[in-house]
């Protein structure tokens, strides 16, 4: 039984009779192959990537599993259409908070047409892509059983400034994200961004690979960052996850590192590590203050 | 007594009645302040940089010393003009081989005018700037007492391809650079690119700073790489040197890392480390072969 993905935060949605991806209950994600050649390019990437022995195992885990392609009824009712069959990343999370971060200070590639380059460049300049080396392309924050998800609309996302990005990276790991931007407590930062299995360590592992790999250049590709806020709130071990997605514009590296992706990744790493170190500082401050007053804070970060 | 610099490999030259920098015998370099505001921006950068306590000492050594500005007779005979007074980097080398590498996959900055951006973008796409994240903007290779320097003309430099860049990075550290591109022996790679005071270590030290610093964004800035081939040939300790130059387009970092410079720097690091590891491999091969034949190569790299 195919249905519209519940947790898709960016890209074309399969609603209102439009063409978009579908999911099933067994954890698979069906992405329609777009007719302009992009779909076939993405399929070709997955085929090349899965058989490339130069990609180390510890890097493969950052990519969705691909199960080939399959003919399916398209979501827009246009009949049978080839779909890329991928792992449904969100399916392993109960109430996932998700950020889709498009990496790189340019989304175009040298071989593209002038028209395509100008179109991308305009959007790159309008968003934080040029200034930050990445832009948030979509997100949802789980705020709790009652309020559900905060999922800003496409226009709002596209107008995010540097200030907004910084604030969202804080809200993303805050227990009080629904109250407002200014007072985000970042109380989940140590367990989601920090720690040996946290987002920062995963980003650093990816960075080390990007400093060396010259096989692919990942243009206009996104990092999906996911975690389950409820499991963190309940004290169970969180499993923050990173996956690279959207490979329709990947080109051969030809012996050159992907300096565009790497630069943006380093910029994101700096932002995430700043949220983390701010949260550590404020939890030390909390400790000092609670020691003075004789009470202990209950966020468990007072070491 | 002011004169035209002997070792200037890029930028405007003070010849044929044109405006350009001058040097004296005491090791100072006089750069005319251009009237379009660039000169004043560069002076302002040096003033801000020299008094900024956030810049660590081990990073300052990668920047030329600035002695302020001075009114001097311009090289084009137009009368008195303000000049930036800088350390003449080449003056401490007897027969310097020099590469001027403009770092970054874009030379423009978000705040610039549309016209300026299009002009830069066009040149960035025409050269290796977009593809490699850096371009060689000028160079001279010392080839020996008889042949003197190889210094390709501006047009030749601007037409360098990825292949040319790779080949020049090899020729730069070869004892047989004059023979031709294909057979570069890279025999100086271990002592110039390698070692604890070599170019690679210096680039890595700079990289670590760029992963963290959010004070400046260095647009259209160059890395000057210098060494004295004669002193290496004679067996004395070489002092390969790196200096950042050209700060007319530096803008405030505003809390964001310079991902454009960092990405290009990482790409250059990859190229340099490949020349170095190739040269190590071939010297091991030499060793094995000379052991077989009972003779030892004399390049001193046979460990």
Automatic annotation (TrEMBL), chains A, B:
GO terms for biological process: inositol phosphate biosynthetic process. It is an enzyme of class 2 (transferase). PANTHER family: INOSITOL POLYPHOSPHATE KINASE (PTHR12400), INOSITOL POLYPHOSPHATE MULTIKINASE (PTHR12400:SF51). Belongs to the inositol phosphokinase (IPK) family. This is Inositol polyphosphate multikinase. It catalyses: 1D-myo-inositol 1,4,5-trisphosphate + 2 ATP = 1D-myo-inositol 1,3,4,5,6-pentakisphosphate + 2 ADP + 2 H(+); 1D-myo-inositol 1,3,4,6-tetrakisphosphate + ATP = 1D-myo-inositol 1,3,4,5,6-pentakisphosphate + ADP + H(+). GO terms for cellular component: cytoplasm; nucleus. It comes from Gossypium gossypioides.
